[in-house]
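SAMPLE LOG
Freezer: B-3
Tube label: C17
Construct: single chain, 212 aa
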Amino acid sequence: MKGKFITFEGPDGSGKGTIIKYVKKYLEKNKIDYILTREPGGIEISEEIREIILNKNHLSMDERTEALLYAAARRQHLVEIVKPALNIGKIVICDRFVDSSLAYQGYARGIGIDEVLKINEFAIAGLMPDLTIFLNVRPEVGLERINKSKVRQKDRLDLESLDFHKRVYEGYQEVLKQYPDRIISIDAEQSIKRVSEESINSIKTFLENEYF
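STRUCTURE (predicted):
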């Protein structure tokens, strides 16, 4: 039986990393076979591309270069990690995927959602997530969380202006309209407990509908 591909999306500061930890505990408690990975990254080549993309010294990076680098990292990650895991029946939980590129590079950078989608269609060859959890948080709230964090190291995207992050948020709203059957939006300005419960319940319901 083929596995399921579940992604988490959200603006910077939405709390994806924290919520994914709770999802991980749920999967382990229920003995569900899974792997946890992230984008850009997850494997050596993609992690090295990540370093290039997020390096704070690379402020002159062209927006199309940025989009292509994300797509390249995504392709290698799919080939080495995601597809093999799905083929042996694992649940793949991934922190970010195509929707991030559509919102950040497609909308916020002004390349165009359709243009960035074309780049990524070449990279993913039709492999889209089965379910996406979108952690919905206003950019002002997300940036405030980042600024207050004592453990997070700011990267190049964290240093972008509030206007940029507002465009990212607007971009995600457009992506939500484009894929309403795949993406579940959760209010991520609630308590961590509530957000984690809603995320886990969404995954639980999805898996039950798919497998039982």
